[in-house]
Amino acid sequence: MAQLDISQKLTILADAAKYDASCASSGAKKRDSRDGTGIGSITGGGGICHAYAPDGRCISLLKILLTNSCIFDCHYCINRRSSNVRRARFTAPEVVDLTLNFYRRNYIEGLFLSSGIIASANYTMEQIVEVARSLREDHDFRGYIHLKTIPNADAELIAQAGRYADRVSINVELPTRQGLERLAPEKSETQIEGAMADMATVIEDGADARKRYKSAPRYAPAGQSTQMIIGADAANDRDIVRRASGLYTRFKLKRVYYSAFSPIPDASAVLPLQRPPMQREHRLYQSDWLIRCYDFSLAEVTSVADTATGMLPLDIDPKLAWALKFRGQFPVDVNRAPREMLLRIPGLGPTAVNRLLKARRYRSLRLADVARATTSVKKLRPFIICEDWRPLALTDSADLKALITPKPKQMELFAV
Fold this sequence. Notes:
Elements: H1 6-16, E1 51-52, E2 58-59, E3 62-65, H2 92-104, E4 110-114, H3 121-138, E5 144-148, H4 155-164, E6 167-169, H5 177-183, H6 189-212, E7 224-230, H7 237-251, E8 255-260, H8 278-293, H9 298-302, H10 318-325, E9 332-333, H11 339-342, H12 350-359, H13 367-373, E10 384-385, H14 400-404
Parallel strand pairs: 3-4, 4-5, 5-6, 6-7, 7-8, 9-10
Antiparallel strand pairs: 1-2
Keywords: Iron, Iron-sulfur, Metal-binding, S-adenosyl-L-methionine
Protein name: Putative DNA modification/repair radical SAM protein
Domain Elp3/MiaA/NifB-like radical SAM core: 60-287
């Protein structure tokens, strides 16, 4: 490998990390250095990135790979062993120095570190853990750290990663075992899920220990997450939603991230030639939110998928699709319905529902009250009853979908 300077390595390894979407930090422990000691912060300062602090702020992360060299040959990965890409590798001290220097310049507020597999899983995991250990122990770094762990690494190394990181993640890669065996034959679903189960146990045991002993170490306070690639194999949306629901239940994951497959340079012949529509990824995220935040059951979400293809509709969101399919559940009286039924009304989210529940304790809600709780009342009208509003035959209208679905609109390039 030719000798590269830090700037060249950063260019290669930051670009290689862009395919990982799972770098969000919601739920991380609040830490700062305003007491005059330590360095770094997760609660102060500004930044631009697709990661979020506990208070909802968007924060900036240094997102890189330790190396894009890899002993595995996964068909969908641009860094696979047989790929003709330029290779680079950071040492652990180089990543530490980059993180500290970028923080001091107010470029970042934390680190997202992943890696290809070099030499062995344990060797790679040791290097990743050493970066986090050095930042925390040698430099008292208090910013956010997210580590991507190696599934078949030793359980003790993965536990150490949880000790130093705010969040850890282990990618399940593909939604089905068949897809993994076909596109990543050197990886094992059993090993991946075993590592996730081990980390879930470490996090749970650590939380229990903290309840009894304040000095007990804190393990991955922001929990663990995972990512699966969408559209590289034959899995349909119903398969994907079921797998994600199972991961949440079995391993208490904070998030499952979906990454639409994108054709890569020098691609394997077994991969599809075109990427799936981005709207598919968006609909899967919406379905994910329905299960996690709207109290929808797995059966309710999968019921809106096409019976023949198992795919979610692309033209409307899954919540609206459910309401249109089960019109017998509507209209809902916003002054009397329980919370779980209010959450099933298209256009109402948890925040709006909580506002309505609080307001109706003091007065009967009118349509204007509902309108103030949401951004648009047009989508709600066919599905609700208020003190001064009844939809009459609107709910049963044959063209209801066309009436409430926004019309496609051509955007103007030079609009003011």
